[in-house]
Automatic annotation (TrEMBL):
Lineage: Bacteria, Bacillati, Actinomycetota, Actinomycetes, Pseudonocardiales
Protein name per Swiss-Prot or TrEMBL: Lysozyme
Keyword Disulfide bond among UniProt keywords: no
A Pfam family assignment: Glyco_hydro_25
Entry superkingdom: Bacteria
Alphabetic keyword roster: Glycosidase, Hydrolase, Signal
Signal peptide start and end residues: 1-23
CDD domains: GH25_CH-type
Family: Belongs to the glycosyl hydrolase 25 family.
Listed SMART domains: Glyco_25
Length: 272
């Protein structure tokens, strides 16, 4: 599928943060990190590339015990949120940041607009374990739109950990080092917001790059990517998924998701 690229003070904050990166070049304090193409990277962009799409979207997407939603990034540009709501979307995750030097130009419109249309929304961070620590990236994420507030309409921030778009799938890290990096991000995010972040990943990447760690199943909700008729095997430690990203196109802009529970359970996730 081809894609294209408030809260009070959010727009100004995002604009200011976006000045950290222009044309894909990071700040001098961060070193020569290349963020070109970051606007087109979205949750699952590398998973689809590495793992492919298998079968048709699940027939039970709109079952009584699930809630339909989607996720977007700068690749979608400005979204018609009223149309998304009319089509049945009830929640959305929106890409805010990547590494410690990129903020999506579309974040303010998407985050504020989805809230205005009545969707429950949250922000996600595209992890770059090769450029800085988990703590540094969690801090950058929270400071640039990825925080959480107990307003009943905001999902906890999500950490998108998937294949490296620049090279080695695991960013040159051993399994134990990757687990430590994710734990560093998760711990810092929770210290800043009071909530553990959702972890977005695929089972295959998790097995390959964390050694199928079971360290996060009791603390972090799972947002699993698998483009198939069935969700299949989950990463170790999680007895169930919270959100399933089951297709990279469909009824709503961006990727298609299904929350594993009814609307009251989705609301509970917003309040902790």
């Amino acid at each position: 599928m081809k894609r294209r690229g408030a809260l009070a003070g959010l727009g100004a904050m995002v604009v200011a943060a976006s000045s950290l990166v222009h044309g894909g070049v990071a700040t001098a304090s961060q070193g020569p990190v290349d963020y070109r193409g970051a606007e087109s990277r979205y949750a699952g962009s590398q998973i689809a590339k590495h793992e492919g799409v298998h079968g048709s979207p699940p027939a039970h997407t709109y079952a009584a015990n699930t809630v339909p939603g989607h996720d977007v990034s700068g690749w979608q540009g400005d979204v018609d949120w009223q149309a998304s709501a009319r089509a049945g979307a009830e929640f959305v995750y929106i890409k805010a940041t990547e590494g410690t030097g990129f903020v999506s130009d579309s974040f303010a419109q998407q985050y504020t607009g989805s809230h205005g249309a009545g969707l429950i929304r949250g922000a996600y961070h595209f992890a770059r374990p090769d450029v800085s620590s988990g703590a540094a990236q969690a801090t950058f994420f929270v400071d640039n739109g990825g925080g959480w507030t107990a307003d009943g309409r905001t999902l906890p921030g999500a950490l998108d950990v998937e294949y490296n778009p620049y090279g080695d799938a695991c960013y040159g890290k051993s399994a134990s080092d990757m687990v430590d990096w994710i734990a560093d991000f998760s711990r810092t995010y929770q210290e800043r917001t009071g909530r553990a972040p959702v972890i977005y990943t695929s089972t295959s990447w998790w097995e390959k790059c964390t050694g199928n760690s079971s360290a996060f199943g009791r603390t972090n909700p799972l947002w699993l990517a698998r483009y198939a008729e069935r969700i299949g095997e989950l990463p170790a430690g999680w007895p169930a998924h919270t959100i399933w990203q089951y297709a990279d196109s469909g009824t709503f802009p961006g990727d298609q998701n299904s929350f594993n529970g009814n609307r009251s359970r989705l609301s509970a996730l917003t309040t902790g």
